[in-house]
Amino acid sequence: MKTSIVAIAAVMTTAIGVAGLTDGGFLRQNTNKFTGSPEPVTAAAVPENGAGVGRSSAPQFTQVAQAERPSDEKAKSAKPQPIVDESALRYFAAKGDTARLQAEISRLRSLYPDWVPPADPLAVPQNTDVALETMWRLYSEGRYAEVRKAIAERQAKEAAWQPPSDLLERLNVAEARARLVNASELKQYETVISVAASTPSLLTCSEVDVLWHVANAFAETKRSERARDAYLYVLKNCENTPERLATVQKAAAVLPYATLQDLLAYERTNQEGVPEFESIRDDLARRFVAEGDEDKALAVDPKYVQRVERLAETGGTASDALLLGWYQLRRDNMSAAEPWFRRAHDKEDSASASQGLALTLIARKAPAEAEAVLYPWRDSSPEALATYFAATANVLAIDPPLALDAAVLARIAQETTTGRDAATAQQFGWYARALNQPATAAQWFATALRWKPDDEPSAYGLALSRDQLGDKDGVAEIQRLWSGRSERIARLGEVKETLDEINRAQVPTAERQRSQPQPSTRTTVVTEVVEQPVTQRPRAGGTTQKAVRTGAGCRTTINPTGLAPQAALTRGWCLMDLNRPLEAAEAFEVALQAPASQIREDAAYGQSLAYLRAGLTSKAAVSATKSTQSRGRIDELQTAILADRAIAAFDAKRYREALLFLDQLGQISTRRQDLMVLRGYSYMNLKRFEEARRVFEALAATGNRDAMQGLAAVEATQEIWPNKN
After folding, report:
1. Residue 401 sits in a domain of what CATH number?
2. 293, 294, 298, 301: CA torsion to nearest 10
3. Based on the number of CB atoms within 10 Å of its own CB, is 279 exposed (0-12), middle (13-18) or buried (19 or more)?
4. Are 350 and 318 a contacting pair, CB within 8 Å?
5. Cα(41)–Cα(305) distance, rounded to whole angstroms?
């Protein structure tokens, strides 16, 4: 079938078109329509400049031309030869530009199928039109603006003169290509798509780099299917092996896992039987497993996971083991994840390896080892610190209590007071009570309540400790403060049971009082609380959760694993009403096994709220992904998680990080005044006084006392640093 650039352009316009490029129709038609496109070459037919083109002082162009000549030359010579402008051939041959010479021969043969290339392009007669020769020379050097200028000047002098249509066509295409590439570099992706739509002759195998730019523009504008079509066109129609390989590499950087599998289906096998993409197969497998690390729902083909496993086992790099560890952890395969994290940790101790290993150890109920592993990396990220405090709370909650080394207790106590972690402080209280140290226990419970005033288990522990110390007035004060909110606090003293029996019956499993050891058999001393004040710290409100069930039927502690999912869900909400979040989280975990999607959704939501109330923000974030949620619930959980992380970052004096969380929070939620105060103090601690002043002034105008104090602090601080802005 006769082919030509005009015919190809028509097909491209039909298949693509301006509307198709802009509304998602790129290459929607059958790509076999493009098989008549010019034969691919090793370089673009119309590069934007002459840089990087091979040159030689005495090129053998006769062989190049002969390779393009038809086999039946005698039959061709009998036909009338068309008039073909061969001047471009001469220029490319004279410059030693074999790539563009071959591209030009292919182009002319597409336009004129009966044309026979000259045996020696250097023998092509030089055009007698010196001015036109100059224009061709400027074009071949990529000086397109000068070509336009020369054309305009000649037309001004010679009104009847018209430039050759071939020169104008090539110039238009070259300029369009330059505009497209420039727009791509400037990230003007809609312009890239528009230029490509108006210049379909660019979208061929001779211009693979243009196709790459167009595909990337589609990907950056969230049209991955259209990007897929562009990359797929190259793999279906183009023959250059390095370009095909580069196409897959570029596609892998912007396309999701499932879409990329469509492209890999077009892999070819070379004459030696080796798949053409084998050289990048390891990197692709790593990329796919990494995507699985981020998306728990992504089902990565086992062959990719197994390939990374072989790499981790033979190459011995920590990064491959880490990929596998997080992949398995995201899917709750803790027993499979631990060996990979341990391998990575042993090979190269890092924050990621330590955090992952600690999470698996906590799940395996080995919190003491988790604390030791993560302690050096506890401040590497908010997530690492949250995991560390989960380990500390769990290690103190072991029943019977562990005989911890004094140095370990001291560092846990120090980190607890520095990080103001209410959950660990509460567990210190129960630990002290198990060692028959009611005074120390009371101090820890009181500290936990200062950090988390709505923590009912800490209030109950404080009431028990004060009662044991004989502080009747102190017990009465707690009962007054918790009147109507905690039945067990209200009834303290009415039941004639020992304190140990009360705790075993009513304190949550992870928080209950331990059986007290004999003084003669235990000498461990719990470190006392030495709370370090946080200067310039606003009073930030905690996360508010809604009570959705009555708490009348769950006062007694039981193991929820034997409950039916619906019963476990009901018990979880009941425990939330009693402010026993860790026990509620265990009940919700059982409910997550339900076959009914609505029960799973409610259980994931409830478990997220429970962990938020317990101060375990990272666990709350993980729980939120265990089932689909409504838009309202997603926003509620994201708001609570970001708020908690902002407060934790501020408490850790990571003020820039706190501002980052507050900025993210502002995108999904209306601004809370207490968090705006937090923003003001973050600015002030970063010595960005003018920004702090603006925040405090806006809040102070509403009567906010914290903001008024912040404004006064800004004034006082600027007296010390008057030139800071």
Report:
1. 1.25.40
2. -30
3. exposed
4. yes
5. 37
Residue 415 CA, distance from chain mean position? 30
Instruction: Give the per-residue pLDDT at 553.
Output: 62
Domain identity same for 466 and 591: no
Half-sphere exposure of 495 (CA within 13 A, CB side): 16
pLDDT tens across 207-223, in order? 899 999 999 999 999 99
Q: Which amino acid appears at position 60 of this protein?
A: Q
| CA separation for the pair 630, 637 (Å, rounded) | 11
Tokens of 258: 């499932």
Mean pLDDT of 587-614: 88
Report the SS3 class of residue 275: strand
Strand partners, 275: 269
Residue 160's region, left for phi above 0, alpha for psi from -120 to 50, else beta, is alpha
13 or 170: which leads in pLDDT? 170
Pair 492, 467: CB distance under 8 Å: yes
Contact between residue 144 and residue 176 where contact means Cβ atoms under 8 Å apart:
no
Rounded CA separation 451/448 (Å): 5
Report the range of poorest mean pLDDT among 135-139, 241-245, 521-525: 521-525
Q: Which residue in the block uniquely carries the two structure tokens 């998602």?
A: 24
- In sequence order, what are the residues at sequence separation of 6 or more whose Cβ sits closer than 8 angstroms to the Cβ of residue 509? 557, 559, 582, 583, 586
Token pair listed for 438: 């009611």
SS3 186: coil
Name which residue leads in pLDDT, 175 or 124.
175
* Cα 466 to Cα 459: distance, rounded to the nearest angstrom: 11
* Residue 51: per-residue pLDDT: 34
Which segment of 16-30, 601-615, 644-658 scores lowest on mean pLDDT?
16-30
What DSSP letter does each residue of 331-371 carry, written as one string? Answer: TT-HHHHHHHHHHHHHHS--HHHHHHHHHHHHHTT-HHHHH
pLDDT tops 60 at residue 507 = no
Exposure b/e, 598-622, CB count within 10 A at least 16 = b: ebbbbbbbbbbbbbbbbbbbbbbbb
**Structural domain for 631, as ranges:** 568-720
Sign of the torsion angle spanned by Cα atoms 447, 452, 454, 457: negative
- How far, in whole angstroms, is CA 146 from its chain's centroid? 47
Between CA 306 and CA 285 the distance in angstroms is 9
Between CA 102 and CA 99 the distance in angstroms is 5
625 and 495 both lie in a single domain: no
User: Domain ends where: 533, 551, 580?
Assistant: 533
Q: Of 521, 469, 513, 470, which is closest to residue 488 (Cα–Cα)? A: 513
Whether 652 and 574 share a structural domain: yes
Strand runs labelled E in 453-504: none
Q: Beta partners for 269?
A: 275
Q: Is residue 683 part of a domain?
A: yes
Q: Taking the alpha carbons of 227, 231, 232, 234 in that order, is the dihedral positive or negative? A: positive
User: Are 525 and 595 in a shared domain?
Assistant: no
What is the Cα–Cα distance from 8 to 167, expressed in whole angstroms? 19
Residue-wise pLDDT for 415-440, tens only, equals 999 999 999 999 999 999 888 899 99
Domain-located, residue 713: yes
